[in-house]
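Q: Hi! First time doing this. I have a protein sequence and I read that you can turn it into a structure. Is that right? Here it is:
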Amino acid sequence: LDDVSPGGYRWTQAVLVVLMTLPRTLVELSPFIALLGGIVGLGQLSKNSELTAIRSTGFSIFRIALVALVAGILWTVSLGAIDEWVASPLQQQALQIKSTATALGEDDDITGNMLWARRGNEFVTVKSLNEQGQPVGVEIFHYRDDLSLESYIYARSATIKDDKTWILHGVNHKKWLNGKETLETSDNLAWQSAFTSMDLDELSMPGNTFSVRQLNHYIHYLQETGQPSSEYRLALWEKLGQPILTLAMILLAVPFTFSAPRSPGMGSRLAVGVIVGLLTWISYQIMVNLGLLFALSAPVTALGLPVAFVLVALSLVYWYDRQH
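A: Yes, that's right. Below is the predicted 3D structure, encoded as structure tokens:
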């Protein structure tokens, strides 16, 4: 709400943005929700002696955990579909609404973050996008093999004709040859874009808002053009790490239930569950950021902690099964 202003980002838009980002919040908090939901669900069964009745039919604690795990798999598959086709598109639209409205409140007609691309010895930056999603402030640097600057193009704006052709407007074109500098100006200039075929609006978004399809597409483009892609590869592997962490939390709910099966209330269990859930989420975020900082393997960074939690949860379930 700090960004709300009378002439730009209004409170009605702020409410809309919050509502549009709720699916993303649901996906990100899914491990926490799974743990608390498992504690409450199994706790109710235990309170009503239904777990005792189930176990009297020959079901072991381990088999009960496997049943909960199957339900968890269905839950994570549903969350994956929500993430891919609901959360990512809605979050991107919400960020576009916010950035456009905020820019208007600042008496500016541009929005978004600076974009850049590389194609061989050619480097391109776009300062921002206007309300129609067209580039504003285009700079093109072309270097020789010895890394000396061969030419520089500045365009006030550009019109995208198709995926690869831009019409630059208000062009200044500088060239350097044999120690001499020449300057050419023109109203319009056709240029074959170095950017991927993804919409520029999408490229201006943070990597954690991308769907799996968008991440795959963009990672492939970055690798083809020799640009760093570690941030996006890590974001892609997180899409798998998050469901595994959710399954681990569902398994952890089983020991919580059988640790005090005759407890009349579940307040203490929920309190401990909240602490465990928060510590797990914080640990995972720290691990991901450390992996990005130290350029660790993306699969190890994104999957290491979730897999470890699954093994710990399975060990606890097995131990409680043997004890009871």
